[in-house]
Amino acid sequence: MNYNTDTSNERTLMSDGTGKTHSRNGLGAWLLSATLLVAISSIPSMASAQMAEGFAEGSHPAPPPAEQIEAGKRVYYTKCVWCHGVEGAGDGPGADRLWPRPRNFNGGTFKIRHTASGQLPLIDVDLFQTVTHGLPGSAMPSWEGILTEEQRKDVLAFVTTELVKDRSWQDKEFEEFHVLQLDKLQPKPATPESILRGSELIVEKKCIECHGLEGRGDGNAFNLKDDWGFSIQPADWHKCWNFRGSRQDPYNVKNIFRTFSTGINGTPMPSFADNATIDERWDIANYVNHLCERSKDVNINGGKITEETVKALMEAQPLPIDPLTDKPKINFVVPSKFVEGELPTDEHDERWNLVERKIVAMGGQITHKPRNFVNRIDDVWVRSLYNENNIAFMFQWDDRSKSVQKDDVDWEPYEVNLQDYGVEEQAPGGSKFEEDPFHPESIAAKQNQYQVFNDGIAFQFPIKWQELPAPRKPRYFWGDEGFHVDITKWTADGNLKAYEGSGWDVDLEDRDDFTEQLKLVKSEWKDGRWTVIISRPLKGDYEYDTYIEKGKYIPINFFAWDGHNGDVGRKNAVSAFYYLVLEPPIPKETYIYPTLAAIGLVIVEGWVLTRRANRRKGKS
Amino acid sequence: MTWLKLVEGYMPMQMVSELAFCILLFAACNFMLKRAGMGLPKFWAGIFVWGFVNLFYLKYRIYPPIPFSVRAIYGTVSACGVFMWVSGSQAEWEEFKRPIINVLDAKTGLTKAVRTLMLILLPIGLWGFAYNSFLPSFEEPIELRTVHPAPPATTKVHGKTYVLQVAQNPFRINLDGKYDQAYSNAHIVDQSMGRLMKDVKSAEDNPWDPNAKGYIKHVREGGEIFFQNCHFCHGDNLNGRGLWAFAFNPIPANFTDAGTIAQLQETFVFWRVAKGGIGLPGEGFPWASVMPPWEQHLTVDEIWKVIMFEYWHTGYYPRTWE
């Protein structure tokens, strides 16, 4: 456990709440008395706390009626107990394989609130919205449409009375509610000046220390712990759909303003209500909001924002969000465009803008052991260009850490059955909070303590895809016996290799001849993002290397490894099958046939009119 | 836009009833207007109904969007319907085609202008439409996969062969320890909104009751396995919207949909869970499914328990032979 987290901005009561949680769950009695002492001494400081700008005094809610608590219990033990546990300590059967871990309700520490740092949340606003909209980027789903509004309120009545054990919403002596008046505050328009000012303020207010120069969460990425001692990571501002507080409305600047104003209880994210004016907070929120990925990739240049950058950020449109998943919409086609001459040699080449960049969604590899229950890479942006002989892919993905393997390993790069060498998946854990309050075996506790392997990216095509009867494909995971795949794999130690795959548990086969023809154009990790450009011949040996032809749908899927997540071999992130399409130039028929059809229609029109006129003449 | 939820494609009853409601509403309005002497001409009424159904409702109200080829079929069918409606009697048919004839004859200044405009716009429109359809476009191809492929007669899991027609879930037992589907059916969750357990105070209904035993205790054990293994894709509410659902294609099965486990025998589910995507026959696209062959991760008992949990939690009965 860890009490040394950077919680300087949070009031003393905050750490008391969590301190009591620990003691209740098995720490020594001395800790209990110690925390009580601190709690008593902190009362005056709470009472005299100044209310920050934009906040107003809230009231203590009335306790819920007993029937409502009983109704909520029925909801809780059907739906919530599986992750949050019988006593609400965030230690249900599912907890050990989740990162972030499910919330421990006992101490009354809740992340997303309208109330000042360290205070309890508003039940009917904050907690109700959390249950309604879920917490994106975690396993907490949206319960709207599943539970009625009444059922959602019932379960909150149960959780806030029976499972929050150390604090009470009715406790007028210890609890205060300083409520951010978000509805009354007019958002400051996102003008270029406001965004530019925001980009300066995030340096001044030291946001970059954790969130990184470009806001990809790559600052102090390894040392952050929550109040329970579990590793956590700073938010990646480029993925606003993963913000816990995004409330199914990720590009809404108000959500950022709220989190920034009230902080995230239980984590090192402080409230900035006291040391940033409302105006400054809107500037920062506007800047952070514009960093979230949009239709165009804008070069943030290590946070050195110019007026041109701001202009580009403002021109780009928010990505369409899929209402079924609350993530960017996925389209399973990766287009590649033709360019004359040499393929680009770096990511700033203007010709990359010829082709739309595609987001490839990644999930953890959970089909075969060792399964990857936490994939720290959840999307990869892909662009592709081709010329007469070669095709280039540019992969860009956010990774908070550059991971290059330093320790020697026993296995060869082509080997896949690494569990023989002790690479294992996370054990399921279970309900054992009583004996083991700190869950040292959970993913959340083990994060950042894994042996570091290489970051990596790979993609595969079917070999001889021309002979596959549609829609037959080789198996998504390194092919199968009948249909082999052509794998191109790059690892952060600088290796770029071609393999042949014939099944998930069969060692890959080196294709040395083709490896020589692969070209690593660029690989760079900068400010929390990898940029890797790979070029390969369109055609190699038909028997072993995929023939990439124009105008055809060629199945392709992707793999990514985050070395600091202990990703190696089969422990990786995978995508579904996409189709690579080399878009050919527009053929002449596209212009000829429509013109013929239009001329035909003019003739038909003439004929109809003449006929009608003749008939009328005949009648009269 | 959270106040108006889009109709999900797998809810055909909602779609049909909404459409029926809209058309009835339109018919009622039209009737009232007619009574008031301001009835909409047949020609425009027909076009309006067709346009509402095909250009608005089916295009924008349904999510995920219906592919154009399917909408084209609906468009043709509804055009036939509208045509039958406007040509119900000779008089109605005359009324319907009158505006067309008027424009063709162009006796007034207005109809002359309309005719000229149509004569120019129609070829241009056709050119644009044809150009668009000839332009090489690389949309996602539609691949229709068989959701419930034919099961084999037997399946071998962990060295033991199970005959799908006669195998039984060994944990579907009553308090006396006997296989009892009627007992377990009586203790699944309520089918009303939320699908909650029937009685939180009863050790026969609440899997988390310390005194739970037999069927309901096995449900809890199955739930523990589900939330350690399955929810990543199938979701906390078993609706196929897990953490990674957005990354995969086909998307994970939605067990709360009446078309999945509710349609199947428990042994079919056992075969699917044990063998996973890789064990599917060709029509089920085994190459694309990330469904793990759970025999690699779970024991036979654990598989039976997790299946029982899925039925309990969704409130469905497994299909049986009688």
Structural class of chain A: alpha+beta
Instruction: List the total number of helices of chain B.
Output: 10
Number of domains of chain B: 2
Mean of residue pLDDT values of chain B: 90
Rg from alpha-carbon coordinates of chain A: 29 Å
Any idea what the CATH architecture of the largest domain in chain B is? Orthogonal Bundle
Spatially, the strands of the biggest sheet of chain B line up as 1-2
Oligomeric state of the chains in view: heterodimer
Q: What's the main sheet of chain A like?
A: 14 strands, mixed
Named CATH topology of the largest domain in chain A: Immunoglobulin-like
Concise description?
The complex is a heterodimer of chains A (620) and B (322). Chain A is an alpha+beta fold and 620 residues long.
Question: What are the defining features of this structure?
Answer:
heterodimer, A: 620 residues, alpha+beta, Cytochrome Bc1 Complex, Chain D, domain 2, Immunoglobulin-like, 4 domains, 14-stranded mixed β-sheet, two-stranded antiparallel sheet, 18 strands, disordered N terminus, B: 322 residues, mainly alpha, 2 domains, two-stranded parallel sheet, 10 helices, elongated
